[in-house]
Specification:
- 2 copies of one chain form a homodimer.
- Chain A has 267 residues and is of the alpha/beta class.
- The first copy, chain A, has a single domain (51-264), classed as Rossmann fold (3-Layer(aba) Sandwich), CATH 3.40.50.
- Helices cover 46% and strands 13% of the residues of chain A.
- The first copy, chain A, has a 7-stranded mixed β-sheet, sandwiched between helices.
- In chain A, helix 1 runs antiparallel to helix 2.
- At the A-B interface, helix 1 of A face helix 1 of B.
């Protein structure tokens, strides 16, 4: 997507392999993704290779939105259905191999209707949401953000700060990709100051870190945020994600492809 | 297969990535395979990681052999069926991703019965075999060698020199893996002096190169030999192979998985 120039592709491959050789096994996949995609952007001269894909995903999700909102409000348990939709929407991800958002987008609602949660801390999730003063919602991907918006309708929006990435990285959502999403109308939106496809705290802005340290509750969407935050034990975090790769599924103790709501921290 | 020690695996990965970063795009996959597997053997201390697999493949193929030989001799066109079997046997390969010899071995005969050749220079093949004085047969993998033996029954064995790899490399056949194959009883067998999974001429022994330069006809089995020899235009070579990866299939202009007999050189 960034370039068709074979000599540039060759140079990117060589630099990525060289970086990968020096990659410490202590770091997370988003650390590596950040380095790889910085090389891609620098060598191709393309500042945002996934821009078209993000626009397309947002447009497809925007088209589904009114019908889904209707379906949620008339569901048996609207809040839980909205929660499952937000998690199912996490399938819109160009990171893991084989991701194909345009096909899977149509199946998001179907998955939310059909599948149960392999890890289900949703009762604790709703009770934590109810009592929290300040809620930080860590977003993940373009397109998926519309499913986050559906869930935000059932959260105390005035207490929620929604966080996007600080710069283009894969199909992750940034401030630049929020046109037409209407998120700013219902919640405060900030970026985290980092172009990692996750939340690498030491790479984030002081402003974001202040939010992170002072929030009563952190809602973390997706694999990248889980991979970078799961080691943190002193913050109250709920992870909402689909386990999209075997390593992560094993770490969570669930089958690959499972939908998960897992609470963590001093509860 | 070479080791379970995670620190050794990590070291191998890092060294392989470092080599891969410096890999010239002018070299062939067998050049790279040679370097990768030298690292694996050196760092793991295992001189022949695929040894057990090669023994198993040979044993499975040996069990099929008598029945297949019978089937060939009673076939409509025994020579062409033997040729197709030798090509179908090329599926026994641990090199390309997804290779699973023990499953596919049972399907070799079925493939030879059912499939036609996507590139079919077999008429020229048989006429070249008839007139050639010295024939060099470049073998490929363990297990597969039994299917080569079936074809050798229909070649002028006294004119054939069969070539194996000079040292352990993936599941390629070496002198050490010929126990029970009985090849030496019907043809002359030599090794090429090289541990590349193909025929990298500059890496082969002077003795092999002399054979290569003076043979009237070269029969080349498999992808690795094709990848390393297909640039050579002044020798009379027939390539017998299955196109097991998309790059090779595109190069040959055939669908992936196709069986191919292609003649090349000053005919």
């Amino acid at each position: 997507m960034a370039t068709d120039d074979e000599s540039v592709l060759a140079r990117i491959m060589q630099q990525v392999l060289r970086e990968a050789a020096d990659f410490s096994f202590d770091l997370t996949p988003p650390h590596m993704g950040q380095r790889i995609h910085r090389i891609v952007r620098r060598e191709s001269g393309h500042p945002d290779p996934y821009r078209e894909q993000k626009i397309r995903c947002n447009r497809l999700a925007a088209e589904l939105y009114p019908r889904l909102k209707e379906e949620v409000s008339s569901a048996d348990r609207p809040m839980d259905f909205a929660l499952r939709l937000a998690i199912a929407g996490n399938v819109i991800d160009f990171g893991p191999p084989g991701g194909n958002p345009s096909v899977s987008l149509r199946h998001v609602a179907e998955a939310a209707r059909r599948e149960t949660l392999a890890v289900d801390d949703s009762a604790r999730f709703w009770s934590a949401v109810k009592t929290a003063g300040r809620i930080l919602y860590l977003g993940d991907n373009a397109g998926e953000v519309f499913f986050d918006r559906l869930l935000l309708e059932y959260l105390p929006a005035e207490k929620v700060t929604f966080v996007v990435r600080g710069g283009p990285i894969i199909n992750d959502i940034t401030l630049n990709d929020l046109d037409g999403v209407g998120l700013e109308k219902i919640v405060t939106v900030i970026d985290n100051g980092s172009d990692a496809p996750g939340t690498v705290l030491e790479d984030c802005s002081p402003e974001f870190r202040r939010h992170f340290e002072t929030a009563d509750l952190i809602l973390s969407k997706g694999q990248g945020n889980y991979e970078t935050l799961s080691g943190i034990k002193d913050r109250h975090i709920f992870y909402l994600l689909k386990a999209k790769c075997p390593v992560l599924a094993r770490d969570l103790g669930v089958p690959e492809g499972s939908m998960v709501v897992r609470g963590s921290g001093p509860l």
